[in-house]
Structure formats: C-alpha cells, structure tokens
C-alpha cells in the first residue's frame, strides 16, 4: 500500500496557524488534501496534525487524520509516527501541507521510481531553475546529481558554481541549475531508519534534513518534473496563493 501523508504544524514561526489559512473560502490544508487525492498511485491520503483545532477542521472536511505531539522535530518524524499505525503500507509519500496546489501528477512522478526499481529507497522531484531570482534565493534549495539521477548534494547556495560566467544570468543558463521540490517518497524501512538517526553536521549547517540521508549513504533518486510548486511560508506567500487561486484555479473548476 502506498500512503500519502500531509504533515501539518499549527505553530509556524512565519505564519501562525498556517494549515487553517483561508484560500478561496477553504483552509489551505484542505486544498492540499484534495489535490493530493488526484494522484493515481496513492492508495490513501492522511493528514498528521499537532493541534486540536486543526484536527477538528480536518475531521469536518472528511480526511483521515492522526494527532501527533507538538514537540516532534520535523514533518518526516510525524510521518514516521503515522507509519506505526499503518502496518500494511510499504511506501510513504511526504506531501508538504503548505503546497495547496500540488498536482497529483507530481506525486505520481515521484512515486514511479520506487515501483520500477526495488533498489531505489527514496525519491524526490527537481525542476530547472530559469531565473536569477531563484538562483540567488536561499529559500530555493538547489541540487546537483550524477548521471544516474541520484542526488550528490543539496544546498541553499547556487550550485554548481560556474567559474567562467560573467553575469548571474549566464550562471543560470550555463550551469543548468535545478531546484529541489520538497516532495519525498520513502520505503517504510528507510523512513524509520532515517528518523532514528540524529541530525548530522551538514544538515545542521544548511538546515536541510535530506542531507542526513546523503551523509549516511542513502541514495536519493531525483525526478525531473515540468510542474512547479507554490509554497506558502509567509503572509506575502499567502496573498500570492489567494490571487493564484482566484485567477487560475477557481476559474477552471
């Protein structure tokens, strides 16, 4: 069984109560759940919460929900707790709760490598960087990978460094830079192993938990997607999401 889990933390430092933020008359977490359910490969989509208010809202719109402790370190740790309640599930998908317009096709793209190759333990999505703004932004995580499409490193800095480029635009074009889209697919045993390890040095420095996997020798398969994601981390992001919904999503329903 393949299960999509949406971790939803209420006390976001930059946008308090983020899962319940209103977008077009609906809480953000409901948008994420509805779009994740459009995946053709997921057998089940559940939500992992840490707040009673969010729990009640999620129950009201009909999703399967699990309560997890507030002090859990990360969304991945919440998913590991949910995994304990789903013994028949072999693959888990970490779907970010703050990406209300996630496409089901993106989830399916990320899941496919684990279905076709039993040696792949973890997969994730990447997309080509096309602007200088994305290249320079530390909130856009960059990734470099080998000829077999396994990640070599993730960083908030622009990688690879194009030594001979004369302008930032030339760096973007000549470097073939890629950004990481934070959708992860794990085999259950790898997920539980990963969450049992302590934070690693590079993970602490970059504030990127996927580096813990690389430092422990777990290979992460990267899948190139044509789709982009819109993450909501700040009040400004929320306004962008609301405008996007009104202009593009609502009119096509």
Give a verbal description of the structure.
It is a single chain. The protein is an alpha/beta fold and 253 residues long. The chain is 35% helix and 22% strand. It is built from 10 helices and 11 strands. It has helices at 28-36, 52-60, 75-83, 104-116, 132-136, 168-175, 188-196, 201-206, 210-215, 235-249; strands spanning 2-8, 22-23, 26-27, 44-49, 64-67, 91-94, 122-128, 142-145, 151-155, 178-187, 220-224. Strands 1, 4, 5, 6, 7, 8, 9, 10 and 11 form a 9-stranded mixed beta sheet that branches. A two-stranded antiparallel ribbon has the order 2-3. Helix 3 crosses helix 7. The two termini are 30 Å apart.
Shape: globular
Please report the distance between the alpha carbons of the first and last residues: 30 Å
Which secondary-structure class do the elements indicate?
Answer: alpha/beta
Using only C-alpha atoms, the radius of gyration works out to 18 Å
Low-confidence stretches: none
Number of helices: 10
How many strand segments? 11
β-strand percent reads 15-25%
Average pLDDT score: 92
Can you summarize the main beta sheet? 9 strands, mixed
Question: How helix-rich are the residues, as a percent range?
Answer: 25-40%
Order of helices and strands: EEEHEHEHEHEHEEHEHHHEH
Enzyme class: transferase
Catalytic activity: 3-deoxy-alpha-D-manno-oct-2-ulosonate + CTP = CMP-3-deoxy-beta-D-manno-octulosonate + diphosphate
Organism: Melioribacter roseus (strain DSM 23840 / JCM 17771 / VKM B-2668 / P3M-2)
Keywords: Cytoplasm, Lipopolysaccharide biosynthesis, Nucleotidyltransferase, Transferase
């Amino acid at each position: 069984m393949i299960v999509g889990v949406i971790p939803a933390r209420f006390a976001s430092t930059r946008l308090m109560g983020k899962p319940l933020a209103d977008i077009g008359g609906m809480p953000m977490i409901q948008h994420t759940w509805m779009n994740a359910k459009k995946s053709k490969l997921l057998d089940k989509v559940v939500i992992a919460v840490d707040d009673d208010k969010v729990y009640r809202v999620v129950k009201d719109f009909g999703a399967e929900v699990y309560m997890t402790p507030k002090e859990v370190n990360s969304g991945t740790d919440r998913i590991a707790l949910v995994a304990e309640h789903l013994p028949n599930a072999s693959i888990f998908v970490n779907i970010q709760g703050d990406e209300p317009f996630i496409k089901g096709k993106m989830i399916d793209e990320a899941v496919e490598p684990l279905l076709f190759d039993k040696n792949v333990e973890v997969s994730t999505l990447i997309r080509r960087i096309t602007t200088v703004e994305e290249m320079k932004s530390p909130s856009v995580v960059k990734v470099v990978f080998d000829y077999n499409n396994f990640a070599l490193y993730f960083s908030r800095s622009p990688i690879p460094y194009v030594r001979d480029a004369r302008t930032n635009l030339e760096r973007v074009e000549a470097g073939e830079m890629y950004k990481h889209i934070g959708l992860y697919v794990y085999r259950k045993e790898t997920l539980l192993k990963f969450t049992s390890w302590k934070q690693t040095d590079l993970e602490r420095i970059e504030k990127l938990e996927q580096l813990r996997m690389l430092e422990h020798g777990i290979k992460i398969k990267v899948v190139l997607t044509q789709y982009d994601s819109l993450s909501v981390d700040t009040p400004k992001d929320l306004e962008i999401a609301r405008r996007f919904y009104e202009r593009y999503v609502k009119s096509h329903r």
